[in-house]
Design goal:
12% strand, Rossmann fold, 8 helices, alpha/beta, globular, two-stranded parallel sheet
């Protein structure tokens, strides 16, 4: 990006690649990934799909391109939930953190939901240990006490606000 005004996309390179394909924008991708979305197994999803050929694969865009290539629907958590509840299919292979399956089962208990398998034999590896650190109690205390406080230098605040306003203009 010759003018020095390029877009650096963070924190997930897979999501960034997906957005580049969708928007055509040129971006520098931060090399980070979500450890859960990184370990879904393309081979094992294909095997599960062979066992359940009627199942549609739905995935978060943070998944690797090989997993996204198998997906019938790619979207945010709310998009995956809406798709699973509204689509006529009666079975879904869900390639994201498996906590969403509970919501799907509540909304459409007559349908079948399968967690996308991961590499190796680990069954609970698709559960994000970091998401489990967030609780309603911690959120309540954070809002009530306004802690922990994050401080940012004024010049960084100004540049960040410009970037946020620019993103909002583009959306």
């Amino acid at each position: 990006m010759p003018d020095g005004r390029g877009i650096v996309f963070a924190p997930d390179r897979h999501l960034g690649r997906y957005l580049i394909r969708k928007t055509g924008r040129d971006m520098v991708l931060w090399p980070g990934t979500c450890q859960v979305h990184e370990i879904f197994s393309e081979k094992r999803i294909v095997q599960l799909k062979l066992q359940h050929p009627e199942a549609k694969v739905i995935a978060h865009p943070e998944c690797d391109d090989r997993v996204l290539a198998l997906a019938d629907h790619i979207g945010s958590t709310s998009s995956l939930l809406k798709f699973a509840l509204e689509d006529e299919s009666q079975a879904f292979i869900v390639a994201t953190e498996p906590g969403i399956i509970h919501q799907m089962q509540k909304g459409a208990p007559h349908k079948q939901y399968y967690s996308a398998p991961v590499e190796g034999a680990c069954v609970s590896c698709a559960e994000c240990p970091h998401m489990r650190l967030n609780t309603l109690e911690k959120l309540y205390l954070c809002l009530r006490d306004q802690r922990p406080e994050v401080t940012v230098a004024p010049e960084v605040q100004e540049r960040a606000l410009r970037a946020i306003n620019r993103m909002l203009e583009l959306s």
